[in-house]
Design a protein that fits this description.
The protein has one helix spanning about 1-20; strands spanning about 25-30, 35-45, 45-55, 60-70, 75-80, 95-100, 105, 115-120, 125-135, 140, 150-155, 160-165, 170-185, 185-195, 205-210, 215-220, 225-235. The protein is built from 1 helix and 17 strands. The protein is globular. The chain has an 8-stranded antiparallel barrel. The chain has an 8-stranded antiparallel barrel with strand order 9-11-12-13-14-15-16-17. The protein folds into 2 domains: about 1-120, Lipocalin; about 125-235, Lipocalin. With about 240 residues, the protein is mainly beta.
Length: about 240
């Protein structure tokens, strides 16, 4: 009976701990030149993404992410992309994390604490999404979500990040992210970093959005002013 209670208790602790990680976390640190660097990590139920960028200018530095799971206080990750070191893609990593109440965590043995931004709300789009359709020349064309070439968006309740990459070639294509809101039928992105063009940092973009049968229908104009209509599907 004691063993059974221990196992149930351990499972419950792990489950609660994992649920408590879901959402977005931020921290700041200084690089070798004394610049302030902002870091953000976002956890959905099975996927996570971390990004670093200049806290003042938004200049992109690096990003990585993939699947994750927690066993006790041991974090296990399987990277699907890494903008700095492609050789790490597909190689599992694990490390211990420390928990400070419900609002701070850090990698054990380090001094840097990450502070919770949200727990998956209030936005309506928290989750890991893969682009599954795009309107081209008036026709809605499906996109294979099982292809190694992926465009994924990971959203907490207040933050978003998209990543384009290839799991087969380990090639990183690009990323961008920041904060978002969903008010009525309007989805608004506020860009804090963009790997391909720093000049877009600070821009706010509004789109129409609708959830239909669990899919995210996303339409409006791109940052270059071109009309677009996309469908995103929650990643299983």
């Amino acid at each position: 009976m004691k063993v059974l209670i221990f196992l149930i208790s351990s499972f419950w602790t792990c489950s609660v701990f994992s649920q408590n990680l879901i959402g977005a976390w931020v921290w700041t640190e200084q690089d070798e030149d004394g610049k302030q660097i902002k870091g953000v990590v976002t956890f959905t139920e099975s996927y996570q993404v971390a990004a670093w960028f200049d806290a003042e200018t938004g200049a992109f530095i690096e990003t990585n992410g993939g699947t994750w799971e927690l066993d006790g206080n041991t974090m296990a990750e399987m990277p699907e992309f890494n903008s700095k070191d492609a050789d790490k893609v597909g190689k599992p990593i694990s490390f211990e994390i420390e928990w400070d109440g419900n609002d701070r965590m850090r990698i054990a043995g380090t001094e840097r604490w990450a502070t919770r931004v949200d727990a998956g709300d209030p936005g309506n789009l928290a989750g890991a999404w893969l682009i599954s359709g795009r309107m081209r020349n008036g026709d809605l064309q499906p996109i294979d979500v099982f292809s190694p070439r992926k465009t994924m968006k990971i959203l907490s309740g207040t933050r978003f990040q998209w990543i384009a990459y290839n799991t087969e070639t380990k090639e990183f294509k690009g990323t961008g992210g920041g904060t978002y809101t969903t008010v009525g039928g309007t989805y608004t992105e506020n860009i804090e970093f963009f790997s391909r063009d720093d000049s877009r940092v600070g821009a706010s973009l509004e789109f129409d959005y609708e959830l239909k049968d669990g899919e995210w229908h996303h339409s409006g104009n791109t940052s270059r002013g071109k009309p677009m209509y996309e469908i995103w599907s929650l990643r299983k």
